[in-house]
Design goal:
The complex is a heterodimer of chains A (540) and B (318). Chain A is an alpha/beta fold and 540 residues long. Chain A contains 22 helices and 20 strands. The two termini of chain A are 44 Å apart. Chain B is globular. Chain B starts with a helix and ends with a helix. Classes of the chains: A alpha/beta (540), B mainly alpha (318). Chain A: Keywords: ATP-binding, Cell membrane, Membrane, Nucleotide-binding, Transport.
Chain lengths: 540, 318
């Protein structure tokens, strides 16, 4: 057909590890017509981003295009010189990355970065024309103050707005193709919906073709005409969006679809007289005097139950965790552990107090010391809290590795860098378990992980809870995770609790308006979900 | 008040306080020197009467804190006292010498700063290539040799063997600028060789460290050329460390040139300090120490302010 814009054939991309090359993308074929949106789906490491960048004739340092052909609008990108490829980049093929905050140069104003490609790099138009174009696009992307926002620097603009400004920047030369690489993954659900809307409108209006890369099926269902599923650099299957959602053919695709079905069994509610393991009572906390980040916060964590604390970034969820661990003593209110008052500050707590409340962090990468072996990472809290030595210590470490389903002989002497993301998070869990706590604070522990891996972690946490009678405080912004694991839900907004109760009640109407917004912003696996949600909004 | 202005005022206050602390240290260090100043200057043959008279004239009979305050008050008014060696006004003595030292420092800096930053940028652009490796080896070797060694090697070849430049850098008071530059070329070249490596390597490292940033990849994906990426996208974000290392080296050019000045018999402040130590001209030593400290603090202050001013996060609040 004539209107084929991009045709990739039998593409192979290799990455280097030391001196050997291994395959990242293996024999991918891809076709994209003008104005068409193709969704690329897969877990991290599936080669989605590498493939997306290859569509621009670009390979990152340490990777190389080892075979195949990439044909863009009649031009073979691989036979072009580097200068020839540079001439296409930004002008005819543009890129929108995951983290807008990191992708804008902090030293220049947004509008100067917008005009850079059309004016300085490709010499398409003069600065004034390009700036006018920028303001129009900012307006079309529904950015507040479209005339003034370009004069700001990236640190002065919020994440969702930056993401839209980056999409506008990608449109600056009116390209034929835009690669969107997880553009909304780092955003809250309520912000995500606005960015998705803006992207979809602009792409349709200018009839721009797009490759939309994501690991979130529900998102891609809103954006793409066709979906291609990748696994370890190979294609699993490809089909039009509706067909793919309705009837995935391959087992792997089906497993991706099924992830969201994990639900914990409802538990009997705690009795009136049960003393909660942890009680947070009217807590107010602040970093700067007079600016409370958490206001009048109260909730209970009962034995063997999971309390999910939900809210957008900046709602005070993590601050609440800091108060519980004693890192941030509250200015008002108190904490009770088994009915006894807990000293507000870390410095005044006994070793036993500390042992009882442990924490698992979002980024296992940074939470584990890269220079220590797994044996030391898990062994240290056992020594510190329980005083075990020698053989007993070794046995306990092995028991814990068994508990987190990692083979002790294989893993005990490894360094964190030799583990995958999910395995690292399991080590984080083992380290928390090592202290034999009653309550574990899980701060966004699955949000940096792929869905299948995240589900594995959730199931593990659930099993450990059933076996050991643990209580969890589970901080998350992802309502699917809440559905999966929570017994009780606390919804926070701007430092206050807007609604709380058992999960069974929380997911049934009537809701607090904010809870309602949150629930409605979670993308559903139906292709017209975004359209319907927007319609409802307009009616409201 | 604008936060930047506030920060600048804070830094200036801190600088003044540091200078005050240094004046105390300098004074106390001199106090701790063993022996009686008057006796040592007048020599062993002096009669007790002459020593006593001399002590009275110098004010050595006064308690230390009174002398310190006198000294400090004098300095604040621009009066550093008189030299013991020739009884001239120290302020006058120093100003001529400081002028010479500043001339040499500016001369060296005018060559070294642009040279090292452009070499650093080039090395970053051509990183991993032949140019990068050669320039690294050359600058590293030049900085590895002690400066007097570099100075004598230059003297041996460019002055003694090839007679291209004079070996003594004293230019008298009536030399033209060109004449001055010609006569001081060897000491300036020595200094350039010593400071270039540090600045060049820091520039290269600061730039290369940034090249893994997502906004650099973004610039590549917008079609920017490698040179544009280095100059437009990496350099503005690398300014703070570069400014700091430049300031550190400029301070060295003024305060660290003692040895180079001595080798080339250059009439600068360092030379004056060495002579004064030899002749036990304590007031001059104190004054030169304080001037060196002041220059050092001033340059670091300017570097601090500039690196704050080049950071849009601080310059433009949220």
């Amino acid at each position: 057909m004539d209107d084929i814009l991009l045709k990739i054939q039998d593409l192979r991309i290799e990455g280097r590890q030391g001196k050997t090359w291994f395959t990242i993308v293996d024999g991918i074929n891809l076709e994209l017509r003008k104005g068409e949106v193709l969704g690329l789906i897969g877990e991290s490491g599936a080669g989605k981003s590498t493939l997306g960048l290859a569509a621009m004739g670009y390979s990152r340092d340490g990777t190389r295009i080892a075979g195949g052909s990439i044909n863009f609008d009649g031009t073979d990108l691989l036979s072009l010189t580097e200068a020839g490829r540079r001439d296409l980049r930004g002008r005819r093929i543009a890129y929108v990355a995951q983290s807008a905050a990191a992708c804008f140069n902090p030293a220049h104003r947004l509008i100067d970065q917008f005009t850079e490609a059309p004016v300085q790099i490709h010499g398409l138009e003069d600065k004034a024309t390009s700036e006018k174009h920028a303001r129009e696009l900012y307006d079309q992307m529904h950015l507040p103050d479209p005339d003034g926002i370009g004069l700001r620097y990236s640190h002065q603009v919020s994440g969702g707005q930056l993401q839209r400004a980056m999409t506008a920047m990608a449109m600056s030369c009116k390209p034929d193709l835009i690669i969107f690489d997880e553009p909304t993954t780092a955003l809250d659900v309520t912000t995500q919906i606005e960015v998705l809307t803006a992207i979809r409108e602009v792409v349709r209006k200018f009839n721009t073709a797009a490759i939309y890369i994501t690991h979130d099926l529900a998102v891609v269902a809103q954006m793409a005409d066709r979906i291609k599923v990748l696994l370890q650099g190979q294609e699993v299957e490809e089909a039009p969006t509706e067909e793919m959602l309705a009837a995935p053919k391959e087992d792997y695709t089906k497993s991706l679809w099924a992830v969201r079905s994990f639900r914990s069994e409802p538990k009997p509610k705690p009795g009136q007289d049960d003393v909660p393991v942890v009680r947070v009572e009217n807590v107010t906390a602040e970093y700067r005097p007079g600016e409370p980040v958490v206001k009048d916060l109260s909730f209970d964590i009962h034995h063997g139950r999971t309390v999910a604390v939900v809210g957008e970034s900046g709602s005070g969820k993590s601050t609440a965790a800091k108060v519980m661990t004693g890192l941030l003593p509250p200015v008002e209110g108190r904490l009770l552990l088994d009915g006894n008052e807990l000293p507000p500050s870390l410095a005044n707590r006994t070793k036993d107090h500390l042992r009882e409340v442990q924490m698992i962090y979002q980024m296992a990468d940074t939470a584990l010391n890269p220079k220590q072996t797994i044996r030391r990472i898990i062994g240290r809290p056992i020594q510190f809290y329980l005083g075990l030595q020698g053989k007993q210590l070794e046995e306990r470490i092995r028991d814990l590795l068994d508990a987190i389903e990692l083979e002790p002989d294989t893993y005990i002497d490894r360094l964190p860098s030799e583990l995958s993301g999910g395995q690292k998070q399991r080590i984080g869990i083992a380290r928390a378990l090592a202290a034999e706590p009653r309550c574990i604070i899980c701060d966004e522990v699955t949000s940096a992980l792929d869905q299948l891996v995240a589900e594995g972690i959730l199931r593990l946490l659930k099993r450990l809870q059933d076996k050991r009678g643990l209580s969890y405080m589970f901080i998350t912004h992802d309502l699917a995770t809440v559905q999966a694991i929570a017994d009780d839900v606390v919804v926070m907004q701007k430092g206050r609790v807007v609604e709380q109760g058992p999960k069974e009640d929380m997911f049934q109407p009537p809701h607090h308006p904010y809870t309602d917004t949150l629930l409605r912003s979670v993308p559903q696996m139906e292709p017209d979900w975004l359209t319907r949600t927007l319609q409802k909004r307009e009616e409201a | 008040m604008h936060p930047l202005l506030k920060m600048i005022l804070q830094r200036i206050a801190l600088g003044l306080f540091t200078l005050f602390a240094i004046s105390l240290v300098v004074f106390l260090a001199v106090e701790l020197l063993p022996g009686d100043l008057a006796e040592q200057i007048l020599g062993q043959s002096a009669t007790p009467e002459t020593v006593a008279a001399f002590r009275a004239e110098l004010g050595l009979n006064m308690p230390a804190h009174v002398r310190y305050l006198d000294w400090l008050v004098g300095i604040v008014q621009g009066d550093f006292g008189r030299s013991l060696a020739n009884n001239r006004e120290i302020a006058e003595l120093i100003s001529v010498r400081l002028g010479n030292t500043l001339f040499l420092a500016c001369y060296a800096a005018a060559i070294a700063v642009p040279l090292s930053i452009s070499l650093g940028l080039l090395a970053a652009l051509l990183r991993g290539g032949i140019f990068d490796r050669v320039i690294n080896i050359v600058t590293l070797s030049s900085v590895s040799f002690p400066e007097y060694f570099v100075a004598y090697i230059l003297l041996l070849f460019l002055s003694v063997r090839m007679s291209m430049f004079p070996s003594i850098a004293d230019f008298g008071s009536e030399a033209s600028l060109l004449e001055m530059m010609y006569r001081t070329f060897l000491p300036a070249l020595t200094l350039v060789l010593v400071v270039t490596a540090h600045m060049m390597r820091m520039t290269r490292t600061a730039i290369v460290n940034l090249l893994a940033q997502p906004y650099i990849e973004m610039a590549r994906l917008k079609g920017a050329s490698p040179a544009r990426i280095i100059v437009r996208h990496a350099l503005p974000n690398a300014l703070a460390p570069i400014i700091n290392v430049v300031a550190l080296n400029l301070a060295y050019l003024i305060t660290g040139v003692v040895i180079v000045e001595v080798v080339f018999v250059y009439p600068g402040l360092g030379q004056l300090m060495v002579d004064s130590v030899a002749s036990r001209d304590i007031p001059v030593v104190q004054a030169t120490c304080l001037v060196f400290a002041g220059v050092y603090i001033l340059l670091n202050l300017v570097a601090d302010i500039l690196s704050i001013a080049t950071n849009p996060r601080l310059l433009h609040g949220r």
